Amino acid sequence: MLVKGLRKLKYVDFSTSYSFTGTFLRNLGANGGGNHLEVMLLRDCMHLKDIEVERFMGAVLAGEFKLFRHLDISNREGLASEGDWFHRCYSASFIPIEQLLEERPNFCLVAEFPKGSCSYVDAEQPITSDLNSEVGLTYQLSSQASDGSYLMSTSDNSSDSDQGSDNEDGPESSFVTYEESSDEVDFLSG
Questions:
Q1: Which pLDDT score, from 0 to 100, does residue 137 have?
Q2: pLDDT number for residue 135
Q3: Positions of the region Disordered (predicted)?
Q4: pTM higher than 0.70
Q5: In terms of Cα–Cα distance, which of 40, 75, 99 is closest to 149?
Q6: Distance CA 50, CA 118 (A)
Q7: Which pLDDT does position 6 carry in this prediction?
Q8: CA–CA separation, 188 vs 171, rounded Å?
Q9: In the chain, what is the greatest distance between 2 CA atoms, to the nearest angstrom?
Q10: Measured distance CA(177)–CA(146) in Å, rounded
Q11: Which residues pair with 108 in a beta bridge?
Q12: What would you report as the CA-atom Rg of the chain, rounded to the nearest whole angstrom?
């Protein structure tokens, strides 16, 4: 699927896309058509690479995507590592969450990973009353799911963390649902 000319795209849901790696995220900023993007759901994208999410969040921290407020990178299979598809990342520790929430206090990051894996609360760090020292007091974990995963949020958000691919109740303007085919999604400011 190739998407062009959607300058006012606000909501995009690529959830459960098997072949989506996230490479297109590199082209969203700098007049790539993602300036109006507010919500991106990348839940359970089997081949989503942690490095692509890290690069995208670096752009967010650099001041791009000023309207962007919600990212879901939850993945029951973990995120794919850059060099090895079979090596999975079960942690969002590559995202500087404290810095993100200092600069974007209303940002909602959802990063739910399976129980028993090394999820956001690193196995090497002891769990304390604030979950761990890396998390700190800058943001709150709004809930812990029954499977041990966490929903990370900074505000009482009315959006459901598991919006899946059903977009009937989504924003009435500007949304795209990615149907599984390839990672060839291109946003242009046209």
A1: 23
A2: 29
A3: 147-190
A4: no
A5: 75
A6: 14
A7: 62
A8: 21
A9: 50
A10: 28
A11: 70
A12: 16
